[in-house]
Every structure is written in structure tokens, then in C-alpha cells.
Amino acid sequence: MPRRIESFFVAGPAGRLEAVLEEPEDAPAREAALVCHPHPAHGGTLHNKVVYRLARGLRRSGCAVLRFNFRGVNLSAGAYDDGRGEVDDAWACLAELRRRYPALPWTLAGFSFGSRVAAELAARLGDDGPGRLILAGFPTVYREFRAVEQSRRPRIFIHSTHDEFGPRAELQALYDRLWEPKQLLWIEARDHFFTGALDELERSVAALGTLAGGSAGEGTAAQPAGHQAARPAADQRGDIAE
Predict the structure, then answer these.
(1) Confidence band of 235 (pLDDT split at 50, 70, 90)
(2) Is residue 236, in this structure, part of any structural domain at all?
(3) CA distances in angstroms from 70 to 113, 192, 205, listed in the order given
(4) How confident is the model at residue 150, as a pLDDT?
(5) Distance of CA 228 to the CA centre of its chain
(6) Neighbours of 95 (CB within 10 A)
(7) Is 131 exposed, middle or buried, given 0-12, 13-18 or 19+ CB atoms closer than 10 A?
């Protein structure tokens, strides 16, 4: 079955938002996922390497995945709004994703700044929030933890062992004080961008499976709440994104 890939624009609060939707290659989608990219002021786009690998791992597990550019990035209208408007952008894209897949459970995911946006959106949604949050490279240096601390949604942290924007001791301390359900995967990588370990990052995401249970490809079911695991590094050659 040919994989569906569609590029389109979402009507956002500051104008149109550039988006890409991809479905699994060999089976119908069993979950929908929104993936948010890193900081717009520092070159973050929907084509960022980590975002691309997050999305591909989710797609391998059985998700239809929507990536998008925040306001002011590439073809998206508007200008950077210090995180406030970017949460609104994510909300607009989430609404479009859920409109297209109204019967599927759904996940919010993001990398770096995008993980903060995903967490903030989940906090806004409260009991109507996602089935789970997948937060890659959550930056502790900003000291903004309210959204993840107050959330009762399952939170899955995927973090480099050498993250300069989320040092291991700080991320571990944050994780240890959070309510269940939660999960933390450490990946042996050289820096915040999972350099040298993008393949393992993707495999780890695929292995989480879907909220519906199991996976559409190589993934397996997620570990129990509170689980922590360390993953070895892998080669990142062949990555296509920015």
C-alpha cells in the first residue's frame, strides 16, 4: 500500500502554517501524532534531523504524523512570539490532525523548544489532553517546569546523556519528582541533537508502540510507568533533514 504524504497549509491564528502529514507505509494508521520542532529563532524547522527521526519512529510504530512550521518559519506566516503564539500554532495544527483522524487516539511530541510547546499545550488541554507526551531533549536550562510537573498525562522523556541544554543530573532530578505515569529513556549521544545516535533515537521511538497497543513495524510495547533505560549510540549517517 503506497504511503500517503501530503503537504498543505493549516489556518493558524497568525496566518497559514506550513505542514506535512505522513501515514505508515504498510498498514492503516492506529494513532495520530503531532510533532513540534525546535526553536524558530535558532534555525528550528519541521525538517530538523531530530524532528524527522521522531516522526519516522512514530510512523514506524503505526502513527499518522503531522509536522509543521511555527509562525514565521519558512512558508508559515507571522513572526516569532516567544513561545506564546507557538502554543496556539500547535493547537491549530492539532485541531486539523484530529479533524482528519477523529476516531484515533493521539500523541503530542516535540524536540527541545518543541517539547516545551507540546507540554504547555497538554497542560492547557487538561483532561482533554493527549494519550501521552513524548518529550525529546527537554531543555532544563530555562527552569520552566510547571507544565510537565502539573500534567497527569503519561510523559515519556527521551534524552541524550550529554545534553548541554538539559544536563543529565538536572533532567533526572526533574523526572524523579514527577507524578506517575512517566518513562525516561537515556540515549548515549554526544550532544543535545543526539549526534551519533539518531538511528537509536528513531528505534527507541518506534519501540514505544502505539496507544492502541503493539506496533505496525519493528516497534514493541512501551515499558511500564516509571521505567528508565539506557540506549547505546548508533551512527547518524544518511539523515536527510536540516
Answers:
(1) very low
(2) no
(3) 11, 21, 23
(4) 86
(5) 18
(6) 13
(7) middle
Average pLDDT, the chain: 89
Residue 15's domain spans which residues? Answer: 5-231
CA 40 to chain centre: 16
158 closest CA partner among 131, 122, 129, 132? 132
Q: Per the domain annotation, does 239 fall within a domain?
A: no
Neighbours of 26 (CB within 10 A): 11
**Are 187 and 163 in contact, with CB atoms under 8 Å apart?**
no
Neighbours of 114 (CB within 10 A): 32
- Alpha carbon distance 192, 164 (integer Å): 6
Distance in angstroms (rounded) separating the CA atoms of residues 63 and 209: 9
Mean pLDDT along residues 43-47: 98
Residue 237 lies in a domain: no
H/E stretch holding 50 reads helix 49-61
Return the pLDDT at 40.
96
Question: What value does the mean pLDDT take over residues 55-75?
Answer: 98
Report the percent of the chain where pLDDT is more than 70: 87
pLDDT score at 47: 98
CATH of the domain at 57: 3.40.50.1820
- pTM flag (> 0.85): yes
Number of domains in the chain: 1
Please, what's the b/e burial string for 198-213 (b: 16 or more CB within 10 A of its CB; e: otherwise)? bbbbbbbbbbbbbbbe
Residue 242 placed within a domain: no
Rounded to the nearest 5°, which phi and psi values hold at 241? -95, 180
8 Å CB contact between 205 and 125: no
Q: Are 144 and 224 in contact (CB under 8 A)?
A: no
C-alpha cell at 75: 512558508
